[in-house]
Design goal:
The chain is α/β, with parallel strands linked by helices. The chain folds into two domains: 264 residues, Aminopeptidase; 97 residues, Alpha-Beta Plaits, CATH 3.30.70. 34% of the residues lie in helices and 19% in strands. It has eleven helices and eleven strands. The chain has a six-stranded mixed sheet, with helices on both faces. Strands 7-9-10-8-11 form a five-stranded mixed sheet. A hairpin with a 2-residue loop joins strand 9 and strand 10. Helix 8 crosses helix 9. It is elongated and about 65 Å long.
C-alpha cells in the first residue's frame, strides 16, 4: 500500500478518534465576563519568521513589539483583565507551548500576531484567520508557512500526533476538529479587520478559515492576525516604523474593546456571525430529524412548548459541522438534548430555563462532563438568538 495512503488511513482510524476526545472549549468564567486574554507574538528565538529581502527586518521582532504594545493598552484601560504573553522577549516557543499557556491560564480570548510574506511583492494588507476547514484550499500556503515552525521541534510527529506540514494528507485530521467557539472567533476576527483597514495598512483581505496548529487546541475564542506583508514595500515601511506598529496595536486594542463589550453583554452567548471567506454562510438551514429519544427534534420541542413562554435559556454543550448520530455515547444520560442546525453547524443544547439565572445555576454540573458548555438564548422556534 502506498505510503501516503497508509498515512491517510492512520489519521482516519487512529488520530481523528483520539482528537475527538479533546475538550472543545473552556468557558472558564462563572460570571461569563472576559477576564483573561493571551497575546501570542508569533515566532521568536531560533525561529525568525518572515525576513525582509535586505535581511534587516524579522517577523519575530515586529510581532513582539505589537504584542507588548497591545497588552499594555489593555492593562491601562482594563485593570481587571489579566494579560498574559506567550513570550515577552526574543525566545522560542513551540506551537503546543503557546496553546498550553492559553489553556493553562483559562483564557477567554487568544490573539496570535503574525506578519505575512510571499514570493511576490504585490500582495499587501491584513487578514485574520480562525480555525476551520478551508474547503477551497486557497489558504493552504498560509497553513504550511505558519505550521512549518514545528519542523524546528525534535519530536514534532509525536507532539502533534503524526501531523507533517509537508504532507497534504495530514490536513485530513482537521476535518472533524471543530471549534465550539467558532462564532465568537468570527466576531473577534471581523472586529479586527474592521479596525485594521482604517490604517496604516488599509487593504482589507478579510476574515478566513485555515487549519492552523496554533489555533488547533486553544479552548477559547481564538484568532491569528497577519497584520501586513513584509514582502510588500508599502506594508514593510509601516511594519518597520515605530509609529506604524503603534497604530496597528491601537487598532487591535479597539477591536479587543469592542469584542469585550460584546462578550460581556452577551454573557458568552452565540449570535449570528459576520460573513467569512467560507461556504458555510451560504448553506441553507436544514430541518432537524430525530430517530432517537436521546435527541429531540426542533419541531417536537416547539410543538410541546407552544403554550409556554416565547423564549428561554439553554446550555450548548457541543457543536460540529457533521451531524451526531442518535444515541451517541457522549450524550448518554442527558435529557431533552436538542439539535439545532444554524450558521453551518449542528449545535447540541440541553435544559430549558425560564431565566438566565436558572441556567447559570445548572451550568457547573454540566461542565463536569462538557468543559466548554455555555449558555445560549433560544427563541420559540428553537433558533439561537
Amino acid at each position: 500500500m502506498p505510503f501516503r495512503l497508509n498515512r491517510a488511513l492512520f489519521f482516519l482510524f487512529f488520530v481523528i478518534p483520539a482528537l475527538l476526545n479533546q475538550p472543545l472549549c473552556a468557558g472558564h468564567n462563572p460570571d461569563m465576563k472576559l477576564r483573561t486574554v493571551v497575546i501570542d507574538a508569533g515566532h521568536g528565538g531560533k525561529d525568525p519568521g518572515a525576513i525582509s529581502s535586505d535581511n534587516k527586518i524579522r517577523e519575530k521582532t515586529i510581532t513582539l513589539d505589537v504584542a507588548l504594545k497591545l497588552g499594555q493598552r489593555i492593562k491601562d484601560a482594563y485593570p481587571d483583565v489579566k494579560v498574559v504573553y506567550t513570550r515577552s522577549k526574543d525566545t522560542y516557543l513551540t506551537l503546543a507551548q503557546r496553546t498550553n499557556i492559553a489553556n493553562r491560564n483559562q483564557a477567554d480570548l487568544f490573539i496570535s500576531i503574525h506578519v505575512n510574506s510571499v514570493p511576490s511583492s504585490k500582495p499587501r494588507g491584513s487578514e485574520t484567520y480562525i480555525m476551520g476547514t478551508d474547503e477551497s484550499h486557497s489558504n493552504m500556503e498560509v497553513c504550511k508557512k505558519e505550521n512549518s515552525v514545528i519542523l524546528l521541534e525534535d519530536d514534532y510527529t509525536t507532539t502533534y500526533q503524526g501531523y507533517d506540514p509537508n504532507e497534504p494528507e495530514s490536513f485530513i485530521f482537521f476535518n472533524l476538529m471543530q471549534n465550539a467557539h467558532f462564532e465568537q472567533s468570527v466576531i473577534m476576527a471581523s472586529k479586527i479587520q474592521e479596525q485594521l483597514r482604517k490604517g496604516p495598512i488599509t487593504v482589507d483581505r478579510g476574515v478566513k478559515q485555515a487549519l492552523l496548529l496554533v489555533l488547533w487546541r486553544t479552548s477559547m475564542p481564538s484568532v491569528l492576525v497577519e497584520i501586513g506583508f513584509l514582502s510588500n514595500a508599502a506594508d514593510r515601511k509601516q511594519l518597520a516604523s515605530e509609529s506604524g506598529r503603534k497604530e496597528i496595536a491601537g487598532r487591535l486594542f479597539t477591536a479587543f474593546s469592542e469584542f469585550k463589550k460584546h462578550y460581556d453583554s452577551h454573557s458568552g452567548m452565540e449570535i449570528d456571525t459576520p460573513s467569512i471567506s467560507t461556504d458555510l454562510s451560504s448553506e441553507k438551514e436544514k430541518p432537524v430529524s430525530s430517530n432517537s429519544t436521546a435527541i429531540s427534534s426542533e419541531k417536537e420541542k416547539s410543538a410541546s412548548s407552544s403554550s409556554d413562554s416565547s423564549d428561554w435559556w439553554m446550555i450548548q454543550i457541543f457543536a460540529s459541522k457533521k451531524q451526531v448520530k442518535p444515541g451517541a455515547p457522549d450524550f448518554k444520560g442527558l435529557k431533552n438534548c436538542v439539535e439545532i442546525f444554524q450558521n453551518g453547524y449542528y449545535k447540541y443544547c440541553t435544559g430549558r430555563y425560564a431565566t438566565r439565572e436558572a441556567a447559570v445555576k445548572a451550568l457547573p454540573e454540566l461542565r463536569k462532563k462538557f468543559e466548554g458548555a455555555f449558555i445560549v438564548h433560544v427563541d420559540k422556534n428553537n433558533r439561537i438568538l
